[in-house]
Amino acid sequence: MDKIEEYLKKSDANEERNEIFLQVFSDDLHEAGLAEKTIRKHLNNAEFYLNVYLDRAGVIPMEEGTSGYHLSDFMGYFFIRKCMWSTPASIRSTAASLKKFYKCMLQHNKITQEQYDELTDTIKYQIEDWQEDCARFNDPDAEDLFKSW
Q: What are 17-63's pLDDT values in tens digits?
């Protein structure tokens, strides 16, 4: 099996595994009585992180998505530069969805308290920087601070 086939097989298996986690999350959001539009937004944000970013980063399992490294790379670089819809508000919205998703995973014993704390601490201490970077990146009059990235 060549490297591409191996990657695709691993990616497909990881996405199937993630579907189970996303279904648990969906069930919890419905049980909490959230509006369907809100549920879709949270599910789409979590699914994008799990099945697009973590997949491209090396088919990273959901549990490792709590790391400050992965979260900072996603929110502070990938999301801002690769997603045309990125705005400071979408940074906040996506962070809220990821916190909700991983809180659900904690409640279902899929991650540890320490993993959840790392995620929430990373968001707490870096969200304003991510939002500022996003605003600068989207401002056509701003200096191009990201050429070296």
A: 999 999 999 999 999 999 999 999 999 999 999 999 999 999 999 99
| pTM check: above 0.90 | yes
In terms of C-beta density within 10 A (0-12 exposed, 13-18 middle, 19 or more buried), how is residue 120 classed?
A: middle
What lies within 8 Å, CB to CB, of 53 at 6+ separation is: 70, 74, 78, 79
What does 38-53 look like in DSSP terms, one character per residue? Answer: HHHHHHHHHHHIIIII
82 Cβ contact list (under 8 Å, min separation 6): none
CA–CA separation, 45 and 80 (whole Å): 14
Alpha carbon 80 to its chain centroid, in Å, reads: 12
